[in-house]
Input
Amino acid sequence: MEIRVLAPTGVIGAGFKATSLERGLALAPHVIACDAGSTDSGPSALGSGRAKLSRDACKRDLRLLLLGRDKLQIPLIIGSCGTSGRDSGVDWMADIALEIADEEGLHFKLGLIYADQPAAYLHQRLEQGRIKPLNPAPILDAAVIDSSHIVGMMGTEPLSAALDQGAQVILAGRASDSALYAVVPERMGADRGLTWHAAKTIECGAACCVNPAADGLIAYIRDDHFEIEPLDLEAKVTPLSVAAHTLYENANPYLLTEPSGVVDTEAAVYTALSDRTVKVSGSAFHPADVYTIKLEGAQPNGFQTVVVGGIRDPNVFMALDKLLPKAQQYFNARIADLFGGRLQPGDYDINFRLYGMGVVMGPLEVEKAPSPNEIGVLITVTAPTQEYASKIASFVAHVSAHLPVPGYEGLISTIAYPFSPPEMERGQVYRFSVNHVLLPDNPLEMFRTKLLEV
Output
């Protein structure tokens, strides 16, 4: 048995070479699958419903995939539509698909799978003790549920049910990335350990190549092993580059948790068949004792205005650890005065990030670099309204440009701002509010499917 799974790119809208897709189609895959989203970019897409990548970029990729699917008459499965996998993201991607079908004269049965979780359902499951926290997880209560937009991350089962109903193209809400690639091989009877490990390996497209790129791979799943090959004839994979992808987005490089079980790669053996193909054997799959669906939620977290600047004088930035706490006290007093007590310190946040001074790793930094010649400054002000955020930011930016630096007398300029005015409004911002799993009665109960004849 050989099952061929085509992964054209890591995410719809990131792009891929048309020639790579053509080669992939020539290899006669049994399915084309592609991810369309993630939480990698933070909570904004889930909170706002806006996709990260542009409609034009997504339409370009989706057009080529729909045409390729039509040529071979095989399933096309796309998950986490609209970046977050919200219901609105599924409808957004469906609108693009319908537009392409009209322009190209395509005909197919479209399955739309929705992953938004109604508040009433979540309240019920919470009261029943059927929602469990992941580590680390914020507190989940009725107020968090009501103030958050929450999706469930589906496994293969809703996708398989849509295929059973005749869907030829599936646009799904939030989904396990690997499930998109695992569902057809599972249905065809492939070994689950090999299937899920192969799916994990190709879910980011050519990211597991020696030189990662926005391009595609094909997986050949056989009885006792699977093989990974890039679609671009110039691209290469090695046992190390393929094995390394199990580290991506995982706390444990050997045990990868999915709704229906755990992928176990500890005994996997990676063998180079050429500089373009790697063989993997020994992967296992342990079915879960209890089926779980991961919940992801985001809620509004105020409005932001940011200021970007730079400091070239070491006498200034080496004094900031003492200056900024004093400045914060001054900011709080002046803000209380400016707004007549309408804003208290807990109502807003003023944050300074000093790039070049250990801001990325903080106390975890192990490389003790010498003092830099210059640093970048990012000031972020978060407040209940955009008006408040911008007013506070303009005040903070002005004061920060003339901090009283020890060793200098009189007024000096401390921060250089590249923009005029320096304040940039970010609009409403969001934070993740849910990192839990839900124990459903069955794998399908949290998802709704709609079928359309296109």
